[in-house]
Design brief:
With about 600 residues, the chain is mainly α. The chain folds into 3 domains: about 180 residues, Alpha Horseshoe (Serine Threonine Protein Phosphatase 5, Tetratricopeptide repeat); about 200 residues, Alpha Horseshoe (Serine Threonine Protein Phosphatase 5, Tetratricopeptide repeat), CATH 1.25.40.390; about 120 residues, no CATH class. The chain is built from 22 helices and 12 strands.
Length: about 600
């Protein structure tokens, strides 16, 4: 990292400016300016903040494909059953690009945030008016939010939380040679940053319509106190401090700034910046067109190419257990949102739940369009033993093929949604499955998430705020409800979202090895699916496109998941990313 960050000494002066909603995070870099003379006023620091936001947008920081393949959620690439993917097989090392790219991008963000913090400290005495002091404080809150966030990510992802602490702007090469800092010190450091941010950032920069959609606002995308509070709550939850985490999550819930919206508005360009979004990364495929899709200074992403089979690479797609869980996600048969009226006037239930239909594309989902197809099966061929794909982060609703965007996508990446807060709060109430006294209240918050998607609710209707909805009428214990959260609710609601949500969840619950072993012994088969194609004007068969459960006697060997991962996964080696070779080869103090 040292060598790379030295290159960023100048890069930190490549600060971006903005003047409107369209310009924010999209301006072309100005000429380089000396860092020693740059930080003269709030305008300079504001441009520095934009550089921090830009770094947050770098897809290498989230590493969605690599993090998803480290979990039970996906299979990598087309052509089952063989793969050489090191993340899926759990054979990655310190030399793997996933570890190196994430580390470099997180520290680049920290370096930029440190420059803004130092710049603001340097001009603090020049703040004379109340307005200037207020602006200074809000800028400092944003800079410290991101530094705290990036250190929270490093602490959660690398070397059991023992990483390098930079609380200053390095002046020369020697300053980059820093030793690893104990995880407890790193935690104290990012906690202080996030506490400052949550106390000094505004609750909201954005106004919303009655539907929960964002009105036009020049500050769309700026971080809020709610985001800082939520991230801090996550950090306590990850440490199993349920009491502290619950207090913070309840503060977000009671604040009234967030609400659940139509599930369809969370995964495409439609409904961006809605009231469910707590932390969201801005992308736009139509700005900075001179930048390639791979450019760190661009404004687009390529998540759609990784997920989509229509003009995309489909380098990662849902694992079979996840597809089956989505297919079996139980709907409330009495909810009118689940009723479809046919052309002849007859009524029937949807084939799949709303959550399922907007999360993944399944061959027999005739209630959804898919790219140019009038039904999902008409949108792609479902070949190569592939029975489903993620709809999330793909442009299935507005394009005929992803290739038309020149491998660029403008879909915003939702890092934290309000639904995540509700489910985490429920987990706190039952204290990870140990507090039966919290079950009734926990069910209330889980059912809010389920009701939004017209799903069958959990528990008894007599004790529910949705008493007229269909419930499973099961008497849950804290442990059985925790099992539901671990193996159903959180993965189905949040699959392939956020910062490594599933990977971090599995590790903190201690279930990764046992989960891989369980899933490696599940059997599936594929059968054909025939439908009338409006594109070809005839009946068409998707050979082997329909996934089903199977037994040892009739399973399809191509359908096996995680067999090698179950054998290879080692808690000591694979639960965290190792310190990457880019750091150990450049920083003598680490060794």
């Amino acid at each position: 990292m040292k060598i790379k960050i030295l290159k960023y000494l100048a890069a930190a002066s490549i600060l971006l400016s903005f003047s409107s909603c369209d310009d924010f995070l999209t301006e072309v870099n100005p000429n380089e300016i000396s860092t020693a003379s740059y930080w003269n006023n709030l305008s300079d620091c504001s441009k520095g903040l934009t550089a921090v936001y830009n770094q947050f947008r770098n897809p290498g920081l989230m590493s969605v494909a690599e993090e998803t393949k480290r979990t039970d959620l996906s299979f990598p690439g087309w052509g089952r059953p063989n793969t050489s993917d090191e993340y899926y097989l759990q054979i990655f090392t310190a030399s793997s690009s996933g570890a190196n790219n994430k580390w470099d991008n997180l520290y680049k963000g920290i370096f930029r945030a440190n420059e803004v913090i130092a710049g603001l400290n340097g001009i603090e005495s020049a703040m004379k008016t109340e307005a200037e002091l207020e602006e200074w404080t809000v800028q400092m809150g944003q800079a410290r939010f991101f530094r705290g966030l990036f250190y929270f990510y490093l602490h959660s992802s690398f070397n059991n939380g023992n990483v390098i602490l930079y609380d200053f702007v390095p002046e020369g090469e020697a300053d980059f040679n820093q030793p690893l800092t104990d995880a407890s010190v790193i935690r104290e450091f990012f906690t202080a940053d996030l506490e400052y941010a949550r106390k000094n950032l505004p609750e909201t920069w954005t106004t919303y319509s009655d539907s929960g959609a964002a009105d036009n606002d020049s500050n769309l995308g700026r971080v809020t106190s709610g985001a800082a509070t939520t991230v801090l709550g996550k950090s306590y939850l990850y440490a199993k401090d349920y009491t502290s985490a619950a207090l913070l999550f309840k503060e977000v819930i009671d604040g009234g700034n967030y609400q659940l919206v139509d599930v369809a508005d969370n995964f495409t360009t439609q409904g961006e910046w809605n009231q469910e979004s707590i932390l969201e990364i801005a992308y736009n495929a139509n700005t900075k067109v001179e930048e390639s899709e791979w450019s760190a200074e661009g404004t687009s992403n390529t998540y759609h190419m990784q997920f989509s089979p229509v003009g995309g690479w489909r380098s990662v797609y849902p694992s079979n257990w996840l597809l089956m869980a989505y297919m079996e996600d139980p709907m409330d048969p009495t909810d009118p949102r689940n009723i479809v009226t046919e052309e002849d006037g007859t009524e029937r239930l949807r084939v799949f739940s709303l959550r399922t239909s907007y999360s993944v594309a399944l061959v027999e989902d005739k209630d959804m369009t898919y790219y140019e197809g009038s039904v999902t099966a008409d949108g792609t061929a479902f070949n190569n033993s592939e029975c489903g794909y993620w709809r999330k982060m793909t442009n299935w609703d507005i394009l005929n093929t992803e290739k038309t965007t020149n491998q660029k996508s403008g879909i915003n990446f939702r890092v934290i949604r309000y639904a995540d807060v509700l489910l985490m709060y429920a987990e706190c109430l039952i204290k990870g499955g140990t507090n039966d006294g919290g079950v009734t209240e926990a069910l209330k918050y889980i059912n809010k998430v389920r009701y939004r998607s017209a799903l069958k609710l959990l528990g008894t209707s007599a004790s529910s705020e949705y008493s007229s909805s269909t419930h499973d009428e099961v008497s849950y214990t804290a442990q059985s409800l925790m099992d539901h959260l671990m193996y159903q609710e959180r993965p189905l609601e949040l699959s392939a979202e956020g910062y490594a949500i599933r990977q971090l969840d599995m590790r903190r619950w201690g279930i990764t090895k046992s989960r891989f072993e369980d899933l490696s012994n599940r059997y599936y088969k594929r059968t054909d699916y025939t439908f009338y194609s409006d594109i070809q004007n005839k009946e068409v068969t998707r050979w082997g496109g329909l996934l089903q459960h199977a037994t040892l006697e009739d399973y399809d060997y191509k359908s096996m998941d995680l067999v090698q991962a179950a054998k290879n996964y080692n808690e000591a080696k694979h639960s965290y990313w190792p310190i990457p070779t880019s750091e150990t080869t450049a920083n003598s103090e680490v060794n």
